[in-house]
Amino acid sequence: MKVLKGISANAGLAKGVAAVYTEEVEENIPHYMVEEEKIEKEINRLKEAYGKTKEAIEQMLKASEEIFGKTGQEIFAAHGTILEDEALFEEIVSLIKKRLINAEHAVNDVFDSYQEKFKQKDFHFSEMTHDIVDVRNRLLSSFNGISGQFECPESERQPVIVISKRLTPSMVLNIAESDVLAFVTEEGGLTSHATILAQNFGVPIIFGVEATENIDCGDKVIVDASMGKVFVNPDKKTEKYYDKKIEEAEKRKQFCVVKEEEPAQTKKGARLILKANISLQAEIKLLDGMSYDGVGLLRSEFLFANRNKGPSEEEWFKVYKSIAEAAKDKSVDIRFLDISGDKMPLYLQLPSGENNDLGIRGARAIDIFYDMYLNQTKAMLRASAYGNVRLLYPMVSDISDIESFREVVKEAKSILDNEGEKYKKDIKEGIMIETPAAAVMAGTLLKHVDFANIGSNDLLEYTLAVSRNSQIIEKRYHILHPSLIRLMEIVVEETRKLKKEVCLCGEIASFEEFYPLFLSLGMNSFSVEASKLSDIKCNLLHLEKPDKSYLDKFYKNLKKNDIEKFFKR
Ligand code: PEP
Ligand code: MG
């Protein structure tokens, strides 16, 4: 079994057979030189391909309008606009003439650089890169007639989990008639045009997965888009676990009518706090029209992660401001950049040989990347003038860690004062409880800050000394290990004494089946992946709050096998 990770663009579960879809045209772009006297002929070939592409886009526009309505029509109209960009056409012509190359080669190079330019822009435009690729591929296929298709034999294809490098609007349209159970892609975007079309299928969509090299036609695949996971050729336990979950989800669909505008509460009406975790700017849109209690964790590491150059203060600020404004007066806990093995933006280079899971993490990274942290802090503070932003310090183990973050905050505030920038002077501060040290010292640490968020993913890793990212030892990463529950109990007790807020924001908060246990240990605030919010809310509505004996039973009944039954999926 392989477990691959990605980002959910549509929540849900699916189990089925993989069908790999390839845009063959990309793999077969001819490159050759053209004699000078044949250049005019080459340009005519280009014009002819343009003509055919125009026709194809017009046909797609019509078909898309029929299947997907106005949105579909608008998307393909936008493709027409890209194709009609005269500057783009002229650039291709001039490249053919200058370098004496064939038209396909020139088309590819010019579209590549065009795409690069869009990638550098803000996120709305960067999400358009797939439209550019789509128009390029359509143009290239007009030269030779090759277009995207399923690699797998027809017999293996109904119903299927579609695996591909990326989703393009054309591809979604091409397979609109197929029986699709889920989409798994390498590249993607939450609000890209293809995603918007694919959401019409109402099936799970997950991108950012190393899909094409790990999944073949005919593989058995389970997609848990809500958890951002794809299981390839799952073992029996995992399959059994998901068969049950899928069955339950189907049942829930029938009885679970949550009014999105209603807050989270249990069956008897006990109000719970339910917030959302966000890693990408666009995720805030998933919360439109929903009742939620804030952003419990805004991870900063994935913003700008694929760039070679770090974001400027202004770039950080724009993202934070837009999320703070969208959340209205609800709290938005922005976490300082927390670098780690699985969260290392390209623009940060650690000194060679440094291990950043046990080395340069949390506050220890401040001295090394001081300017970056200062920019980020100034941006967070400035965003606090537009919403209820709170500062969240990652990987804190003792008071000196809190102090290291505070020094940056102090300097950022003094610069902003000199610059005359507005920010919330009494901005709230919180810590992530992610190390056993922080959990057992919670009472002391919390005296210095306003709130705590339990990062159970790391807390478990450091408690068990088991990597959270290793496929080989995944079995030992028991996500509900009693030691973790015991540490959570300590944190809840201590925060209660101090009358401060504690919220669980690690991955375990997204498992609806663990909520009786969470409630029995006194937790009442949770932050889950934005795409999981509705599911959890619905589940809570059917939950009776258990008494403390539930927790006692949990400890008492836990033998090794029981643990495995619970978590090893
Ligand atoms: C955690 O560790 O549980 C957490 C929420 O932070 P991250 O997963 O980003 O490390
Ligand atoms: Mg963490």
List its salient traits.
569 residues; alpha/beta; nine-stranded mixed β-sheet; eight-stranded parallel β-sheet; 17 strands; 44% helix; binds phosphoenolpyruvate; binds magnesium ion
What hetero molecules are in the model? Answer: phosphoenolpyruvate, magnesium ion
What is the CA–CA distance across the termini?
11 Å
Beta content: 5-15%
The low-pLDDT segments are none
**Main beta-sheet strand count, sense and barrel state:** 9 strands, mixed
Approximate shape: globular
Query: C-alpha Rg, in Å?
Result: 26 Å
Name the average pLDDT.
Answer: 87
Q: What's the total number of strands?
A: 17
Structural class: alpha/beta
Total of DSSP H or I helical runs spanning 4+ residues:
20
How helix-rich are the residues, as a percent range?
40-55%
Write structural notes for this entry.
- This protein is of the alpha/beta class.
- The longest helix has 45 residues.
- Strands 1, 2, 3, 4, 5, 6, 7, 8 and 9 form a nine-stranded mixed beta sheet that branches. It has an eight-stranded parallel beta sheet with strand order 16-15-14-13-12-11-10-17.
- The site of magnesium ion (MG) has 4 residues, from helix 15.
Which helices and strands occur, and which strands form pairs?
Blueprint: E1 2-5, E2 7-10, E3 13-22, H1 24-27, H2 39-83, H3 86-99, H4 103-120, H5 123-126, H6 129-144, E4 149-150, E5 160-164, H7 169-174, E6 180-185, H8 193-198, E7 205-207, E8 220-224, E9 229-232, H9 236-255, E10 273-278, E11 295-298, H10 313-326, E12 331-335, H11 370-383, E13 388-393, H12 399-419, E14 429-433, H13 436-440, H14 442-446, E15 451-454, H15 456-464, H16 482-498, E16 501-504, H17 515-520, E17 525-529, H18 533-541, H19 549-557, H20 560-567
Parallel strand pairs: 3-5, 5-6, 6-7, 10-11, 10-17, 11-12, 12-13, 13-14, 14-15, 15-16
Antiparallel strand pairs: 1-9, 2-7, 3-4, 3-8, 8-9
